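Most newcomers find our protein records easier to grasp once they have seen one. A record pairs a protein's sequence with a compact description of its fold. An example says more than a description, so a record of this kind follows:
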Amino acid sequence: MDFYDTPPTRPAPDGESSATTGEARPYLGVSFECCQVYARVYRNAAGDKYVGSCPRCARQVRFSVGDGGSGSRFWTVR
């Protein structure tokens, strides 16, 4: 099983947003059955979707953010 972590955090220089500083971002844990690997899928800059792909075969996944959704943080993609 492969594991991927977020880059180390560092303080934000003046005028730089958290998106470019390595500050912790919301993510979902996704198990890709296609290649039997785990990866984190991070929320996009707009904050309305989690977007990512399988680290081996590049199969893309998108999870929408919104009212009435699931509170689950871990998913299996088949």
Remarks:
- The mean pLDDT is 83.
